[in-house]
Amino acid sequence: MASRLIVSPFTLAYYTYHCFYSTGWIGPVSIFGYFVIGTFANKILMGPIVSTLFEQEKLEGDFRFKHMQIRVNAESAAFYRAGKVEHMRTNRRLQALLQIQKSLVKKELWLYIGVNTFDYLGGFLSYIIIAIPIFTGVYDRLTPGELSALISKNAFVCIYLINGFTQLIDLSTTLSDVAGYTHRYHRAYLDNRNGYFNDFNVHAGPVDTAFIVDQLSYKSPYADELLVEDLSLTISQGVHLLVVGNTGTGKTSLLRVLNRLWEAHSGFVQMTTCFGPRGTLFLPQKPYLTDGTLREQVIYPLKDIYPLSGAVDDERIVQFLELAGVSSLLRRTGGLDEEVDWNWYDVLSPGEMQRLSFARLFYLQPKYAFLDEATSALTEEAEAQLYRTCKQLGMTLISLGHRSSLEKYHDVQLRLCGGACWEITKLRGGSLKDEAS
Ligand SMILES: Nc1ncnc2c1ncn2[C@@H]1O[C@H](COP(=O)(O)OP(=O)(O)OP(=O)(O)O)[C@@H](O)[C@H]1O
């Protein structure tokens, strides 16, 4: 593009001189006039393309980002059972992208028609230009052979001259693309600076029970050794369970098996409550933040079930944000429904992400909440406040973690000891339901 920009002025000057030599002023002036009209027409056709291209680039970026977000956070999203919601959201982005691409193709079609018509009519222009001096008698002294040579030479010169201008116009098309991309990246740079719930395998069971685990053994899909062998346990309402153990002993894997993300090696898991609000909910170890407004973060993954859930919820959402200690986000976003085009993972600290996950939990108010190291980035005071609120909202907590400070919020402790061993102990006089292996 740069070389064409540099060479074009010289080519234009050279052929303008030759055109002037054979046709007089009429030739270069007609061609310049033709070029000005062509440029004007192109400008009109090109204007909307720049903004559409910018929009298309933005939507394409958003779509790619969504894909990346799902790939990176697949497990966390799966813990929320957010497959359908994410599918719907991704599809929505794809549709928006396809829509804008269609509109771009339509607009580009008119630009290409304009550019090609300009090229095509240029061929006629060369003959009209030379016809004027010929019919006004300037070349009467030439023989038919010389006249024919003059016409051919002039046609060649004019076509070259028009071609020089055409190249400039083509460059403008390329520039319109570049302008669109640049605008998009500039905006991105500036910005940087500054469910559905599927009930699965829900079996009738005691109403106050979430899971019945019987003789369960499980392992990682890529390992041969069992992480836990013959685990039997019942997760019942009102009995808060703490799962502890060294790194890699299989705490999160237990949740994967309970949530059917991993198959059990042997044994039996029965889920007796439904998944979702008023049922069972998992807060994954890696907080999952979707794209969208603050409201969408809090009510996730309900947005597509209750798309109109709006003002009536405002008070509750604000209250839960306050209880979770992230009401400042309201100021940062400018409101619950303000569209933000930042990546939530970039703008929140790990502690804020965990607090926002708790705001979501308070909003959804499940009967059973599985908290996988959900307070690891918070102070013990903040942890105490969040656990207290969960209990006040009537949740039964199943927590995974390393901190001894967690013990006081739980009644029973399941310790995974490594080498497939485990033990259950009673904490703080809670009701112990199963025997240690
Ligand atoms: N997605 C995965 N695919 C295959 N193996 C995995 C996967 N995630 C974890 N593992 C393996 O399963 C074993 C148990 O991991 P798990 O995440 O359950 O440990 P954990 O007890 O929760 O540890 P931590 O306290 O560090 O969270 C580990 O050996 C780990 O390498």
Which terms summarize this structure?
single chain; 437 residues; alpha/beta; ABC transporter transmembrane region fold; Rossmann fold; six-stranded mixed sheet; three-stranded antiparallel sheet; 12 helices; 9 strands; elongated; disordered C terminus; binds adenosine-5'-triphosphate
Describe this structure in words.
With 437 residues, the chain is an alpha/beta fold. It has two domains: 1-195, Up-down Bundle (ABC transporter transmembrane region fold), CATH 1.20.1560; 209-426, P-loop containing nucleotide triphosphate hydrolases (Rossmann fold), CATH 3.40.50. It contains twelve helices and nine strands. Strands 5-6-7-3-8-9 form a six-stranded mixed sheet, with helices on both faces. Strand 8 (412-418) and strand 9 form a beta hairpin. The longest helix has 53 residues, at 83-135. It is elongated, with a radius of gyration of 35 Å. The termini are far apart. Mean pLDDT is 82; it is low at 191-204 and 429-437. The structure holds adenosine-5'-triphosphate. Adenosine-5'-triphosphate (ATP) binds next to helix 6.
N-C termini distance: 74 Å
Number of individual domains: 2
Class derived from helix and strand content: alpha/beta
Within CATH, the superfamily of the largest domain carries the name P-loop containing nucleotide triphosphate hydrolases
Across the major sheet, the strand order is 5-6-7-3-8-9
Task: Give the CATH topology of the largest domain.
Answer: Rossmann fold
At CATH level 2, the architecture of the largest domain is 3-Layer(aba) Sandwich
The major beta sheet can be summarized as: 6 strands, mixed
**Helicity range of the residues?**
55-70%
Query: From N to C, what is the helix and strand string?
Result: HHHHHEEEHEEHHHHHEHEEE
* Ligands: adenosine-5'-triphosphate
Query: How many DSSP-defined strands?
Result: 9
Give the DSSP E fraction (strand runs of 2 or more residues). Answer: 5-15%
Rounded average pLDDT: 82
Q: How many whole angstroms does the radius of gyration measure?
A: 35 Å
Form type: elongated
Write down the CATH class of the largest domain. Answer: Alpha Beta
How many helices does DSSP assign?
12
